[in-house]
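Most newcomers find our protein records easier to grasp once they have seen one. A learned vocabulary of local backbone shapes supplies the integers on the structure line. Here is such a record, shown just as it appears in the course material:
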Amino acid sequence: MPSSIFYGVLVALIWGAQPVVSRYGFQLGLNAADATLVRYLASGLLMLPYAWRRGLGDACGLGWRKGLCLFLLSGPLFSLILIGGVSYAPASHGALIHPALVPLFGALISRFGLRRQERFSLISMGLLLAGLLLIGGDSLMDGHALASGAWRGDLLFVLSALMWALYMVLNKSWNTRPLDVVALVQVLSLSYVLPYLLLHGMHAFEHPPGLLVLQAFYHGVLVSVVGVALFNWVVSRLGVKALMFNALSPLFGVALSSLLLQESLKPSLLMGAALIVAGLVWSLRGARQAPQTQS
């Protein structure tokens, strides 16, 4: 297997398992505020030397207006919302709703917000929306899920997808360097530590050390730094074909939520997952073909 394909699949696995690891932490008592602290302590300190070399005075070359905007969209607030979603809804919902809505929101923001003539497929949008309706309908029709507030988690996943889509569109519009953005956001996120300590004290560190290390390593190192760096490397080797690996993330997330968290996979959820993956593949197929039509 070529190394580019191997690392592309690895990135999809890392990102697909993110809600599963978050849900596992929640089940052991780690709330969204605690998990966010542990995440950014790890990633912020890890990326501080790189950000320092790039120059914090001008926000790693981004400029503070752009830097602060991207920080608000992808920093601690984003983490609180995304991880907060698994406090209510199953990890499988997060593994499906978030990646399904990012391309939808991204296309709408780019087309109607920035007035860019982005190509998007009505077929892929229809498939994604159909899958989302099946999953959302399951949360509303299932009495247990409704009583547990799963719909609240689904709404938080929707909000996180909107924030991430805007973050991605702005990065593309501003032609930023991905690693510079990651470094700046992680370092600025260290500002979350002080308000957390004032409000919650040392509560996060009362959890088992193994749980804290897992969350810090997975979210702070694998998701925030390694995943981004690997994905950029895969893109440099495969071009837009690398986007196809994004369609694997929901499959990994759903499978791991069942295997590791013993979440039940209802027929409606499986049908929704199939529709969402089909929609992602269809939309990414269009992205892969676009350069060919322009040459």
About this structure: The radius of gyration is 19 Å.
